Amino acid sequence: MKEEIIIAGFGGQGVLSMGKILAYSGLMQGQEVSWMPSYGPEQRGGTANVTVILSDEAISSPVLSAYDTAIVLNQPSLDKFESKVKPGGTLIFDSNGFHRFPSRTDINIYRIDATEYAFANNSAKTMNMIILGGLLKIRPIVKVENVLKGLKKSLPERHHHLLGMNEKAIHTGMDLIQKVN
Amino acid sequence: MEEVRLMKGNEAIAHAAIRCGCDGYFGYPITPQSEIMETLMELEPWNSTGMVVLQAESETSSINMVYGAAGCGKRAMTSSSSPGVSLMQEGISYIAGAELPCVIVNVMRGGPGLGTIQPSQADYFQAVKGGGHGDYHMIVLAPNSVQEMADHLCLAFDLAFKYLTPAMILADGVIGQMMEKVVLPPFRPRLTEKEISEKYPWATLGKPQTRNPNIINSLRLESDEMEELNLLLQKRYAQIEQNEVLYETFLCEDAEYLIVAFGTSSRVSKKAVELARAEGIKVGLLRPITLFPFPKIPISQLANQVKGMLTVEMNAGQMIEDVRLAVNGRVSVEFFGRMGGIVPSPDDVLDALKTKIVN
What we know:
Chain A is of the alpha/beta class.
């Protein structure tokens, strides 16, 4: 198994954290992992992205030109990464603020309105976990129990009381995601 | 067994420093390596091993603090990124001239000037050809994974003390910022003052009545003495070239073409080799792990086997000069690179391989 993922959106949407949680989950199930963030000026309100690779074998390049799965959370990210999904691959988008929608026909496109849901339910901070849940519904690359193990490992103990809320958000995401094409 | 952890290359450097018995870190923050000092400050090693961690007022000051600590036989280090390492060059030359061991980590970013904070390999010449003034070399290690960031730090200290010379870890923003699995090296205690004075009789730890004063200096006003030091340094560099070359090869046994790349470029190139092999192109990869000493002999040997070579670098073509020296005109050596903080993609490398070498 090898999954090459790009997650992209605005700085502050939890893009890097979502990638980190995926990477920790991979670590928990004994996989090779790499997490390569965009770093620097683009994180100040601009776009942020992270490449996460989970693999059963050693990972060669942490920097990629094509992805199995792209998760795009804003318009610039869709414009940048839609063309970089491998044919037959997966694109997940949160349509909040989109004016142009994905148009490829050779990839599987899913929509998850996590931002809208999170704001309506006063849970903006779990938005990225909702999206992660959506991803795991259609690409069960890591087990939810390993996500929770990974969260426990990566979060400081004072935040451990939030684990239940995050688990709930994952299941919400699993319900919210819809196939578009 | 040691725990497998997930961390950034920069964090691995900090953890490894404490574990390999480092006595002092002196630095000044700069992206993309600030997590090194941040992690050290968080870990508070002054409470556990007694290691000093100090934010100096500048890079110039950091390297001179390293110079002072190294003169006492201590395991001292600093880290910075390209513009900061430029500021350190005078101090590095002095440390080399004073025959002192230390470790300098350069997590390279794009230049020249203040440049960009994005990853680059444009400080190759500065690292392997001197950087500062005078005929000196540093031992230069080029990690390409988070694991090697940890491993190379301990190796760099060992080599620096073995040959009494500064050693540099030449990484880049990708290796510093990415997270991968790492198993940290085992704990080695810091040396006591007594152990230092026994192991390193040159160290200035306070003069006992039983010996003449130790003097650490890089000034030799008499030409004879200056040449004598230079001859000694050159002899050491020859020994380093003889004994300490490290490199790695990937699919070179039946290779008709060869890519030579170090650090992040070698990771991208490895993927490009996999893509090329899937298309039936017989290409291999040689990755220098030490940039000084440079793996001249294996490259020279492969020049007898392959039809052409491509160096892949995140600069305008620097290591290619050393590859061409090793090949000495026997096969064509071409270059592919990106500059300014852009990391080439595996597809870019594959295209360059096809258009420049395999045609």
